[in-house]
Amino acid sequence: MKPNYKNWMPKGMILGFLCGAAICLILLLIFGLSPVLPQGILKTILFIVFLILAVVLTGVTIWMYLMYRAFSYNGKRQMSRKIIEGTAAYITIPEGGKGLDVGCGSGALTIAAAKANPDAQIIGIDRWGKEYASFSKALCESNAKAEKVTNVQFQPGNALKLDFPDESFDAVMSNYVYHNIPSKDRQAILLETLRVLKKGGCFAIHDIMSQSKYGDMQSFVKKLKAMGYESVELIDTTDGKFMSPFEAKWMALSGSAILVGRK
Questions:
Q1: pLDDT at 132
Q2: What confidence category does residue 38 fall into, taking pLDDT thresholds of 50, 70 and 90?
Q3: Contact between residue 124 and residue 107 where contact means Cβ atoms under 8 Å apart
Q4: Are the C-beta atoms of residues 97 and 170 closer than 8 Å to each other?
Q5: 179-224, pLDDT tens digit by residue?
Q6: pTM
Q7: Is there a contact between 108 and 85 (Cβ–Cβ < 8 Å)?
Q8: CATH number, domain at 120?
Q9: Final residue before a domain boundary, out of 28, 48, 71
Q10: Is residue 48 predicted with pLDDT exceeding 90?
């Protein structure tokens, strides 16, 4: 039995755009090129509209397929694995301690952190929404079983309002989650995650922390330090650490960085 961490680019989404491109091409042939409609302004407009749609949808489909290949755990690039294992490497939990993975998806980061900290208990939470219907609690548990990892637990949870008291965990972590949450203040989401971290605990949060999505993160780093955090560092992961600058650009992952430190 092998784990199935799925793919960050859902196969169903790729097939959906591919079908859309195919339909537009068929409509282009029917209404734009065949004699079904007589020559005239309507036929010209339909030809142009369906041609543009077919080209755009085909381009998007190709882009998503290339993303799928790069993220695949079974492919050559395996970027997802590199990011997961690279993020988990920042997590160290004392014996008997607890860690929290916010937005665990298929359980990849939760399990990686659990394997690196076998004497700790790692909890993975997610709302497992319809956007990523292939991810579920059952999938996480199946992957943990496949990896022979027993020090994990998965449960529903909301990143905006964590159902845990202050300072409940020795470590908190997350990977590419918060930028998907509609919010005008994602720094507030970070503070909610850090709220449940114990004094002395470590954190590693990887996301697209661009100015447009998160605001001024350098100021946020200074804010945490002013709040008394022992160490805080914002590390660019698009300079070869997790991906190359070119990959970050064409994959629309520019601004990716990992916020790490200790409370």
A1: 74
A2: confident
A3: yes
A4: yes
A5: 999 999 999 999 999 999 999 999 999 999 999 999 999 999 999 9
A6: 0.91
A7: no
A8: 3.40.50.150
A9: 71
A10: yes
User: Can you give the residue range of the structural domain that contains 159?
Assistant: 79-262
Same structural domain for residues 97 and 176?
A: yes
Phi/psi at 77 (5° precision): -75, -45
- State the chain's mean pLDDT as an integer: 95
Per-residue 3-state assignment (H helix, E strand, C coil) for the chain: CCCCCCCCCCHHHHHHHHHHHHHHHHHHHHHHHCCCCCCCHHHHHHHHHHHHHHHHHHHHHHHHHHHHHHHCCCCCCCHHHHHHHHHHCCCCCCCCCEEEEECCCCCHHHHHHHHHCCCCEEEEEECCCHHHCCCCHHHHHHHHHHCCCCCEEEEECCCCCCCCCCCCEEEEEEECCHHHCCCCCHHHHHHHHHHCEEEEEEEEEEEECCHHHHCCHHHHHHHHHHCCCCEEEEEECCCCCCCCHHHHHHCCCCCEEEEEEEC
Largest interatomic CA distance in the chain:
78
Q: Count up the domains in the chain and report the number.
A: 2
Q: Same domain, yes or no, for 148 and 32?
A: no
